[in-house]
Design goal:
single chain; 523 residues; alpha+beta; seven-stranded parallel beta sheet; five-stranded antiparallel beta sheet; 9 helices
Length: 523
């Protein structure tokens, strides 16, 4: 079967002749695939059959739960607890490995939910789910009247609590698949009846805003298939079930191509040891297709190397025979304060000498090439920016640095000065952290991202060496992280200040090295 290339970029994601392998068949209607990253098996539901099953290459298909409360969408949280949408109970459930069962959501405003359908987990621990009423229809659920008069999308806060409606009540006919962009700034939600995908901005409080249509007319009179399951890949492309199989959209909403599948596809999930196999639940069967791209990094995926808890006792970056060895799956690279106002001529702090020292260090070029290689090896890239609102509200004038920031009207959101320098713009899959202090930790979500992605080694780069880079290294060491500072990926106001920090303070809290050594260490 040949897949359909609409734009050339599609062939960077999947071979147009990639084989579509049937790994299991003979079911009534398959749904809810999710890959266990540690035990390497696929879990999926057979909704009308009221059965949950698992598949792995060694044992094939086995039955896990019967009845399954006609479960539909499933995922894992960061601790590998299973999160399940149940049609028969109209509930969102957490199942712990020891068998304990916890109801996360069952009612909204004292009315039963319709039937939670699909679910995704934010790195903060918040859980988002869609609530159409398919589970109150015959076959796919238990036929019964609805209590709510609308079909919504909800958020369960980190740590639990009542679900919060995060979309307008009448925006959707049947909200279905949903997924985050790699940086979690966007949430995509599709509507099966309207045959479209909407995208929302994710606010700091977890709410959604700025609803707009991302893709529409996902329908065909010639082939069966509707928007149902949906996932985002590591580059921000959106893969959604559709007529004939799966349609793939670029982050700007262009249709890139179509993955062709013999049966109507209901849902999809990446799996395999490196998350490069796309598993599709398609009517009576489960299919597997190799891809060139993997999924956006979700919190549960870090557990493939032991999970965040297991890594707290792992060893430091290994030094053997003078060579450093780094496990990319444990590493995050911080690119801090490399913004126009900080290191560029014409910036607010140009008179400090910072632009000249940045050129001397070749900091932009060194950070760029290190980041590109790190991304290719699976290292998480985190951009840390100092950003203030116009007038600098909330910036305390308790230190000369902050006084100078306010007096210079520097790093104001939306200005050229606050933007990253050319060549160091965030790529799809990178994270962005904003701060109003010297340290990347203070008042930010940096540690949330590190824990959610299971990273305990920080490659610490940016400006200024003796301030932001050093403060971040000191606090990171105190918190138990291993810090690596490639000194040619850092700069400050002049060589003397840089050398003082590199040769003294940073020696006590980090491994000081250079970009080439880090590149070699990552393999």
């Amino acid at each position: 079967m040949t897949h359909v290339t609409v734009r050339p970029e599609f062939e960077n994601l999947i071979d147009p002749y990639a084989p579509v392998g049937q790994v299991a068949t003979g079911f009534e209607f398959t749904e809810g695939p999710i890959w266990h990253p540690r035990e390497q098996f696929l879990l999926f539901s057979d909704m009308p059959g009221d059965v949950r099953r698992r598949w792995d290459a060694r044992r094939g298909t086995t039955e896990v739960r019967r009845p399954s409360n006609k479960c539909n969408g499933m995922t894992y949280d960061a601790e590998l607890n299973l999160i399940v949408c149940e049609h028969a109970t109209s509930s969102l459930i957490r199942e712990r490995p020891d068998g304990r069962r916890e109801v996360l959501a069952s009612h909204f405003e004292n009315q039963e939910l319709n039937s939670p359908n699909d679910v995704c987990v934010h790195s903060s621990g918040a859980i988002y789910f869609s609530d159409p009423w398919y589970g109150r229809m015959p076959v796919y659920g238990v036929e019964r009247p609805r209590q709510l008069g609308f079909q919504g999308v909800y958020r369960v806060p980190p740590g639990g609590g009542a679900p919060r409606l995060v979309v307008e009540r009448n925006l959707f006919d049947q909200p279905n698949g949903l997924c985050f962009s790699p940086d979690e700034r966007l949430l995509y939600v599709n509507d099966t009846v309207q045959a479209m995908i909407r995208v929302f901005d994710v606010n700091a409080d977890g709410g959604l805003s700025n609803a707009r249509v991302f893709a529409s007319s996902i329908r065909s009179e010639l082939e069966p298939g509707v928007p149902d399951g949906m996932k985002c890949d590591q580059h921000g492309n959106v893969w959604v079930t559709a007529p004939g199989g799966v349609w793939v959209y670029s982050p700007d909403g262009n249709l890139l191509g179509k993955v062709r599948v013999p049966e109507l596809v209901a849902n999809l999930a990446w799996g395999g040891p490196e998350f490069r196999t796309l598993y599709l639940t398609a009517t009576h069967s489960v299919y597997a297709i190799p891809t060139k791209v993997g999924p956006r990094h979700e919190p549960y995926m870090s557990a493939r190397a032991g999970g965040p808890a297991a890594r707290s006792t792992t060893s430091a970056p290994q030094l053997a025979g003078g060579d450093m060895q780094l496990d990319p799956s444990r590493c995050a690279m911080i690119i801090q304060d490399l913004q126009n106002d900080v290191i560029m001529e014409g910036g607010a702090f140009a008179d400090s000498g910072a632009p000249a020292h940045a050129r001397q260090q070749r900091v932009v070029e060194n950070v760029r090439r290190l980041a590109e290689a790190a991304r290719a090896r699976g290292v998480v890239i985190i951009h840390v920016w100092f950003v203030v609102e116009p007038g600098a509200p909330g910036v305390t004038l308790n230190a000369p640095l902050f006084e100078g920031l306010v007096d210079s009207k520097a790093l104001v959101r939306g200005t050229w000065g606050a933007a990253p320098v050319q060549g160091l713009e965030p790529r799809a899959g990178d994270f962005v952290v904003e701060k109003m202090r010297m340290s990347a930790w203070e008042g930010t979500r940096l540690e949330t991202i590190l824990k959610a992605t299971g990273r305990d080694i920080i490659i610490n780069t940016g400006a200024w060496t003796n301030m932001s880079v050093e403060h971040t290294a000191r606090t990171g060491a105190d918190k138990g992280y291993f810090i690596v500072v490639p000194e040619d990926c850092c700069s400050t106001m002049n060589a003397d200040w840089h050398s003082a920090s590199i040769n003294f303070a940073l020696q006590n809290v980090s491994v000081v090295t250079n970009a080439d050594t880090v590149l070699k260490a990552l393999g």
